[in-house]
Amino acid sequence: MRFLLVEDNRELSASVAMRLALDGHAVDAAATLAEAADCLAAASYDLILLDIMLPDGDGRAFLARHRRAEDRTPVIVMTARSAVSDRVDALDTGADDYITKPFDFAELEARCRAVLRRRGGEAQSLRSYADLVFDPFAATLTVAGESRDLRSREMRLFELFIAAPGRILSKDHLCDRLFSFSEPVSDNAIEVYVGRLRKKLAGSRTRIETVRGLGYRLTDQAGQGGGA
Description:
Blueprint: E1 2-6, H1 10-22, E2 26-30, H2 33-42, E3 47-51, E4 53-54, E5 57-58, H3 59-68, E6 75-79, H4 84-93, E7 97-100, H5 105-119, E8 127-129, E9 132-135, E10 140-143, E11 146-149, H6 152-162, H7 171-178, H8 189-200, E12 206-211, E13 215-220
Parallel strand pairs: 1-2, 1-3, 3-6, 6-7
Antiparallel strand pairs: 4-5, 8-9, 9-10, 10-11, 12-13
Helix pairs in contact: 6-8
């Protein structure tokens, strides 16, 4: 998943970005609303973490414009304001959730997971496809009753595939979802992670196929000929 973090406290921003990166998320950090607007113009995001009091304006006004533009990207507001009226105002403006500073990173991560599940209309964390079960909370794939651990980036990549089985996902799209602007990305980065996932899928009828010149897609090989 790719997140946009809009926070002017450099220390907090770096800490949040580092914690989310450990979970395999790509995080672009913006210290002002202008920087956030530039990021949104250049990339699409799965979630926005938005401070309210920023050097060049109020995050709520930014959120209101975001919603008027019919952008439904989930937004979690982060602020030191704890009054009920502040929380209600943020939610009425279009925030999907609200967390008060100082917060525990574990709570922030849980709120991110909950908002992303709601966005996908998923009440449960487990995802099933063909003969496997994917558990993003436990970071595991279960094939024929055998549980296989996924590293953080492998897990985020498989989330993209299982969210769109049968759909061709280009390398550019996968890079955009997995890596932030600040991360150096080698030409074969996606091939490396796809290769790792294919090893984890050994023994399953599920395959990650290479579609020459286009990208990759997750398929169920039951009743099909050919290979990946």
